[in-house]
Amino acid sequence: MPATPAWPPESLPRLFINTELAEGDDIAIDAAQANYLVRVLRLKAGAQVKLFDDRTGEWLAELVHIGKRDAVLSVEARLREREDVPDLWLCFAPIKKGRIDWIAEKACELGVRRILPVITERTIVKKVKTDRLHAHIVEAAEQCERTALPELADPVSLEMLLNNWPDRRILFHAAERGGQSFRKALVQHDGPAGILIGPEGGFTEAEMAAIAGHRAAVPVSLGPRILRADTAAVAAISLWMAGRGDWND
Predict the structure, then answer these.
(1) What phi, psi does 66 have (nearest 5°)?
(2) pLDDT for 109
(3) Of the candidates 18, 85, 79, which has an alpha carbon nearest to the alpha carbon of residue 48?
(4) How far is Cα 125 from Cα 148, in angstroms, rounded to an integer?
(5) pLDDT tens digits, residue range 92-125?
(6) How high is the pLDDT of residue 111?
(7) Residue 200: per-residue pLDDT
(8) CATH of segment(s) 9-80
């Protein structure tokens, strides 16, 4: 039988393990994770940790071996199944380092299913370090108790995004001016959705025309004030989650 936790499972440290977990597995964790558990948290052999794998849910594990540069965790029992993720995509133009990391973190915490960087004509950051963004997403998921990671897509051009946009998925476009109330739009449009946030300099006139002419695009307002790109992303996700997501479950 699993050992009785020294403190409630809700307060145990959590780690993402990029392999499918099952009861009885022994998992060797890498140097960075081992350092976090042993040297930062100062856990000893016998301590318990929660693991999740983005596949099978969340598991209780015991720290059974501590090496010089690694450690081994023994998987004891499943605590939760993998969560149902609201079908919302965040499509946003990359912004400078620090703020783009913040967007990825908050999108994960708020529960989006997919994160898509979109390159526009006025996008300042043309190259996105997806490895770094993924690391921020993992850290956010560990902290906010998600059992599913949002998918991080490779950057695409705005033209490619619009050309390949799936049928029956609404694309809410955060318009600086002229959009309808987002709350009212949510009443009219149910089902899978995406949110499109423009670059710091805004979309060009040609891009605006392309978005407005797209079959799935719905221009929405995020209020009377002009928001920074990162603020707009969080505000839009929050409105959708409150109206159509899992905040009301």
Answers:
(1) -125, 115
(2) 97
(3) 79
(4) 28
(5) 999 988 899 999 999 999 999 999 999 999 998 8
(6) 97
(7) 87
(8) 2.40.240.20
| Gap between the Cα atoms of 238 and 109, Å rounded | 11
How far is CA 196 from its chain centroid? 15
First to last CA, the chain: 34
Position 249 scores a pLDDT of 64
% of residues, the chain, pLDDT over 70: 96
Q: How far does Cα 134 stand from its chain's mean position? A: 9
Is the Cα dihedral 65, 70, 75, 78 positive or negative? positive
pTM for this model (two decimals) = 0.91
**Distance (Å, whole) CA 208 – CA 231:** 20
pLDDT below 50 — which residues of the chain? 1-7
Task: Identify which of 83, 120, 117 has the alpha carbon closest to the alpha carbon of residue 103.
Answer: 117
User: Domain 88-243, CATH 3.20.20.70 — does that match?
Assistant: no
Tokens 């009377």 -> residue = 224
Residues carrying CATH 2.40.240.20, the chain:
9-80
Q: Start-end ranges of CATH 3.40.1280.10 in the chain? A: 88-243
Q: Please name the residue that has the structure tokens 């976090």.
A: 36
CB of 73 closer than 8 Å to CB of 23: no
